[in-house]
Amino acid sequence: MLGIIRQKVGAGGASLLRTRSAVSALRSYSSAGKEMTVRDALNSALDEEMSADPKVFLMGEEVGEYQGAYKISKGLLEKYGPERVLDTPITEAGFTGIGVGAAYHGLRPVVEFMTFNFSMQAIDHIINSAAKSNYMSAGQISVPIVFRGPNGAAAGVGAQHSHCYASWYASCPGLKVLTPYSSEDARGLLKAAIRDPDPVVFLENELLYGESFPVSAEVLDSSFCLPIGKAKIEREGKDVTITAFSKMVGYALKAAEILAKEGISAEVINLRTIRPLDRSTINASVRKTNRLITVEEGFPQHGVGAEICTSVVEESFGYLDAPVERITGADVPMPYAANLERLAVPQVEDIVRAAKRACYRSVPMAAAA
Amino acid sequence: MANWVIRSRTIAHHLNKKMGSLGFLNLSFWNSTSNSFHSSSSTMPLGDNHGRPYAIFGDSATHFAVRRFKSTEAARESDTKYFNQDAGDQALDFPGGKVEFTSEMNFISESADKRVPCYRVLDDNGELIVSNNFVQVRKEVAIKMYSDMVTLQMMDNVFYEAQRQGRISFYLTTLGEEAINIGSAAALSADDLVLPQYREPGALLWRGFTLQEFANQCLGNKEDKGKARQMPIHYASKKHNYFAVSSPIATQLPQAVGAAYSLKMEGENACVATYIGDGGTSEGDFHAAMNFAAVLEAPIIFICRNNGWAISTPIEEQFRSDGIVVRGRAYGIRSIRVDGSDALAVLSAIRTAREMAISEQRPILVEALAYRVGHHSTSDDSTKYRSVNEIEHWKTARNPVNRFRKWIERNGWWSDKDETEHRSSVKKQLLQAIQIAEKTEKPSIEGLFSDVYDHLPSNLQEQEEQLRETIRRHPKDYPSDVPV
């Protein structure tokens, strides 16, 4: 049964994406106007890092012969051979432990989870073997490993395939947690993650794989790298700050468009990194706009939004003109039925309404109760 | 015979194709080993050999690193491995290879008629049994083995008592398994990586970790190379190629396979030795590690200390197989069972296993049978679940240290005088080590914040400054004997 689901997850995502012509990742230095899908961005980043450093190798289910469950590792087996692209047996606990052991001895593994939902079977190795080792061994054992794969909700895959793990991993000291949105994010952050000496959890999104984004020549260069721990202001604004990561960045940008037509200028921050959170960018923005909405797909309790809200309360309380609101997924395991699923994840309208509440354009939720 | 030639050409061709993209593949080192152990394929102690590649490519000149193949090639290889062309009519093709069919319905019995025998070299009186293939040991090595076994035993007793006196918070002993600890350590080279479970400080002792260093770790002072981050007995020493002891059980097993894979990729003349107890083999990680080690053809030795008890769980409640050794075949891993109380048997088996692991790039499983004489740890009182007589019997009649002593005394390499001198010297060193460790300062608060990441992140930097500032402002609220 699981086999069927896994296959379905691979094939089903594509149909829901906006179809744009996918341009292959050519190393051309012509001026902007170049577009690249997130899939190709990840593939090219892996390719370049594996080419630059022979210690980098990829490991996971279906990454080799099958070209990757989501085709992220397409062509890599053929180019680098089975020693550097390992198809693993089905044991997340096993291959995660093996990856950590290889990293202990100095290799730089990239461990792919078919989805981060399956990382639950390996979470002991991620936390107790990887995250804490440098500290517990007083710097003798470092773990330069990257755990990557799709995270969060896809479409119509139910509760065990839709969980967002951003706050799970971001709560653990010793890990770095990255959440790319665009192709530029995907390339720059994956390269940074592979080069980083600490263990990195790299949370992708299945529905973003097929989306195309413009990429400049600088982004296409093989030395391109984005700093870990730095958020990006995707859209400047002055009335309300909206923070988001991964797929929700796209939703927040759409909401900002709608809000602009109604005279509300929203500043959209693409977090890019969840741990370490870019508290200074967030706080600087809130000190400018005085209002904050946080957006995430995951569950509300102990979520990323809760941490951001606390950071702002700790550092910029006096600047807030309205309570901080968090937009999150519903506090229920993800239902399968399409109508219920739509209700269980944030939609653009939810972000728009929350921004209006923050700007006192509509009645606060508490007063309406 | 023509079959073998054709196949070897195919493999050579396959490897040649790979050479282009894998610049670091280096075949020549397989040919020589720097060990003193006599290694000629004709005397390799392989049981029921179904014409495995080792025997075929027996001579050093054609020692290939048998790389991982794609599934169909592996199937073709196992065809020729297990039976000859004449069986063509009686065999069915399946993924994974040809299988002969039978019209007799037979279930493989859940257990063999006899238990797998265990290999031993010295009898209970320390006399050499006439045995084949055991590794000769020079006088200096034998003396070091014996004195380290005694040191280990004494360290365990002294530190256990220290815990009882409240001087350290926790301890666990290796009593009854000194021969496994020291015998295995002596069989390895300093370049081999050791991933311990937690009952193998002897391997670290053998490699040169001092009694003072053991004490510093247990007492958590600033001299501990581990910066006092870990609870007692969780030793780690990169310098000695001894990875950190980690509390979750069996996690070291897949990590060890990964480390072995790393050695393999770098073409090192070394292997990984990882330890596990009987109880630990029930963990999922054991299965994944064994399976992977076989598929990846990793140069690793799995050393299972089957000491009969997992805290209070006896082996009858742990598994129903004939110990751990029989599981090796289930994963396609060569295995052996040894008498864990016989230091020479342990040394011989593991030295041989090391040879095979490195020259053939394969995993080996060694099950060492023993008895856990001590309690599980200082948090346990084993008399609650087993008889005192049983413990006493193993402590005296089956004591591995005494057995080895008889052998070296018989060789004229050790005397009562040596014994008394050694024991009193070690006792003095141990008591001194603890005293010094207790008087040594605790680590400074800088140690609270460093090593979470490779570089100190800004938030922790801020917190450290805030902490120092607070201490500066309220000195009387901060303990005066703890360094800032």
TrEMBL record, chain A:
One GO cellular component, as annotated: mitochondrial matrix
Task: Please state what class of enzyme this protein is.
Answer: oxidoreductase
Is Transit peptide there in the keyword field? yes
Q: Which GO terms describe its biological process?
A: pyruvate decarboxylation to acetyl-CoA
Q: Does the keyword Signal apply?
A: no
Task: Please give the InterPro entries that the UniProt record associates with this protein.
Answer: PDHB_mito-type (IPR027110), THDP-binding (IPR029061), Transketo_C/PFOR_II (IPR009014), Transketolase-like_Pyr-bd (IPR005475), Transketolase_C (IPR033248)
The subcellular location is: Mitochondrion matrix
Per its record, the protein catalyses: N(6)-[(R)-lipoyl]-L-lysyl-[protein] + pyruvate + H(+) = N(6)-[(R)-S(8)-acetyldihydrolipoyl]-L-lysyl-[protein] + CO2
The cofactors it requires, by name, are: thiamine diphosphate
Q: What is its EC number?
A: 1.2.4.1
Q: Which residues form the Transketolase-like pyrimidine-binding domain?
A: 36-211
Entry keyword set: Metal-binding, Mitochondrion, Oxidoreductase, Potassium, Pyruvate, Thiamine pyrophosphate, Transit peptide
Listed GO MF terms: metal ion binding; pyruvate dehydrogenase (acetyl-transferring) activity
List the Pfam families: Transket_pyr, Transketolase_C
Oligomeric state and interaction partners are given as: Tetramer of 2 alpha and 2 beta subunits.
Q: What does this protein do?
A: The pyruvate dehydrogenase complex catalyzes the overall conversion of pyruvate to acetyl-CoA and CO(2). It contains multiple copies of three enzymatic components: pyruvate dehydrogenase (E1), dihydrolipoamide acetyltransferase (E2) and lipoamide dehydrogenase (E3). The pyruvate dehydrogenase complex catalyzes the overall conversion of pyruvate to acetyl-CoA and CO2.
Q: State the PANTHER family in the record.
A: DEHYDROGENASE RELATED, PYRUVATE DEHYDROGENASE E1 COMPONENT SUBUNIT BETA-1, MITOCHONDRIAL
Q: Which NCBIfam families match?
A: PRK09212.1 (NF006667), PRK11892.1 (NF008854)
Name the chain's protein: Pyruvate dehydrogenase E1 component subunit beta
From TrEMBL, chain B:
Matching Gene3D superfamilies, A to Z?
Answer: 3.40.50.970
What name is this protein filed under? 3-methyl-2-oxobutanoate dehydrogenase (2-methylpropanoyl-transferring)
Stretches the record annotates as Disordered: 459-484
Q: Where is the Dehydrogenase E1 component domain?
A: 149-445
Q: Which Pfam families match?
A: E1_dh (PF00676)
Q: Which UniProt keywords apply?
A: Metal-binding, Mitochondrion, Oxidoreductase, Potassium, Transit peptide
Name the enzyme's class.
oxidoreductase
Write down the species. Answer: Lithocarpus litseifolius
GO biological process, alphabetically ordered: branched-chain amino acid catabolic process
Q: Which family does it belong to?
A: Belongs to the BCKDHA family.
SUPFAM superfamilies attached here?
Thiamin diphosphate-binding fold (THDP-binding)
Keyword Phosphoprotein in annotation = no
Cellular location(s): Mitochondrion matrix
Could you name the domain of life of the organism this protein comes from? Eukaryota
Q: Which GO terms describe its cellular component?
A: mitochondrial matrix
Molecular function GO labels = branched-chain 2-oxo acid dehydrogenase activity; metal ion binding
Assembly and binders:
Heterotetramer of alpha and beta chains.
Species lineage: Eukaryota, Viridiplantae, Streptophyta, Embryophyta, Tracheophyta
Which prosthetic group or cofactor does it need? Answer: thiamine diphosphate
